[in-house]
Amino acid sequence: MTVIQPFAEGPQAVLRLTPWDSKSFGFATSEITSISYRQASEIALLLGEVDRWNMANGVAQCVTRIKVTDDAMKAAIQECGFYFAETSFRLSKLNLARCDLNSITIKRLCLRPAESGDRTAVQSIAATDFRFGRFQEDPYLEKGLAKVRHVNWVGDLLDQGLLYVAVLKDQIVGFHAERLSGNGKEADLILTGTAGRYSMLSLPLWV
Predict the structure, then answer these.
(1) What is the spatial distance between Cα 10 and Cα 43, in angstroms, rounded to a whole number?
(2) Is the pTM of this model over 0.70?
(3) How far is CA 28 from CA 1, 17, 22, 116, 140, in A?
(4) What's the CA angle centered on 19, arms 139 and 58, to 5 degrees?
């Protein structure tokens, strides 16, 4: 992580190189993990410093996420050359214990930990059946690179033991990856996908 802070106190941007994306795209990439500011006029100064850091590190693409409610950031980041490639939502569910998930989930659809022999099947789904995401929807990214990234990503998740496969009648129809918190009460839902011909199972798989 690199912290860019033009003044001793005040606004700062935190960046990191993203070698996992660089591996897929064939050029250096980075991510702004956070930006803090006191007034809107400071954002352009920060992003100018971010540009200089990126240039010094040979970065060809830099991404970040911003809150939809931060109007000052939305305006400033576009004025500084960034563009919106994807909109994401954070979801939460209260009283989860009271939900009847069985009413939604197809009981014949089951999840099991992915095995090394599943690699071809899950990477095929990642390569051919994903249509949405910040890289798939990026009009400035060469076509095909997002596919390579997803194939590599799914392979890495499998190697890390975070991937499950969705099985229906002994056939792999999708996958799901998550990381549980230490107390087991929260989950980082990393990636979920279904094969195109089984897209109607996407909702049950999410559940």
Answers:
(1) 11
(2) no
(3) 15, 8, 5, 29, 15
(4) 75
Residue of higher predicted confidence among 55 and 68: 55
What does the block give as tokens for 42?
A: 């400071």
Q: Which residues of 90-106 are buried (b: 16+ CB within 10 A; e: fewer)?
A: eeeeeeeeeeeeeeebe
15 φ, ψ (degrees, to nearest 5): -125, 160
Q: Which amino acid is at 143?
A: K
- Give rounded-to-5 percent helix, strand, coil for the chain: 35, 25, 40
d(CA 63, CA 30): 7
CA torsion, ordered 179, 180, 181, 182, to nearest 10 deg: -120
**CA distance linking residue 108 with residue 135, whole number of Å:** 33
**CB–CB of 178/188 below 8 Å?**
yes
pLDDT of 20-53, one tens digit each? Answer: 999 989 999 999 999 999 888 889 889 999 999 9
Strands of 187-194's sheet in order across: 110-113, 163-168, 171-180, 187-194
CA distance 47 to 36: 11
Q: How far apart are CA 170 and CA 166, in angstroms?
A: 9
39/17 Cα distance (integer angstroms)? 27
